[in-house]
Amino acid sequence: MEVSSTLAVLMEAERLRAEGVDLIDLGAGEPDFHTPQNVKAAAEDAIENNFTRYTATSGIAPLRKAITEMMSRDFGANYDPSEVLVTMGGKQAIFNAMATLLNPGDDVLIPSPYWVTFPEITKFLGAKPIYIDTEQNDFLLTPDLVSQAITPRTRLLIINSPNNPTGRIISPDNFHRMVEIAAARDVWIISDECYLYFAYPPAVPFTAGQLVEDLRSRVMICGSFSKTHAMPAWRPVTPASRRWEKKRSSWIVHSPQSWTAPTPAASSRSRASALRSTVRPLVPNAACTSSPTS
Predict the structure, then answer these.
(1) What does the pLDDT look like over 190-210, one tens digit per residue?
(2) Fewer Cβ atoms within 10 Å of its own Cβ: the N or the C terminal residue of the chain?
(3) Domain of 127: which CATH number?
């Protein structure tokens, strides 16, 4: 596995700053606002009240419930807390999901440009990254491109909308059609929705949780607090799915027990507090990316 190019840029930026260079680091995906005060207060309150013990492997119940309430409130997508898992970060959620699904020799469809971690996890697991070039279509993934890329060995399709790094957003109709195409050919889908709320008019946020039941049962949604709530050092992320439990999804979680946050348990409570308030005011001018939809 190659060294993360994102972290390599971060370390180089730190080295240059130490030498007195004035620069702007565009490597890591971090928002330009701070962690909301109610989130920090909830973490402090949890520590003061000694909420510092081991937590359930799938995440504390109030946090998982708050996640389902957020999905219902913002998107009309109904999930049970038992379908939500809390991990140590988006990368771990995606890694564990891919490790659950993939065998050596499987093909993984990755739209290009892409987050640099996707192909590295694929290769680490002995699978083969198959890149879908979107530049020919103004960097927008389409159902036709997905259909043309699927092979008999395709096991997984990764969809990232809003996309990192292009910012492009897939329309609900096209998203629906892509999942239909993949499901019809027994391909599973990971929907990376870490930038879900960073959609600006005329675009609107769309989650795979809004798909019809038969389709969303083929999808694992991976969300994150790092972007929407400015919590990149607090770690947990929230994968949600229907049928992934049948694919050993209970294995794809890790109990948050060693973080850079104040304590794992306290951090979980702060997330529950974050989700009880709307996300949109935190993301400047969000309808909930500046790129057009298609």
Answers:
(1) 999 988 888 888 888 889 999
(2) N
(3) 3.40.640.10
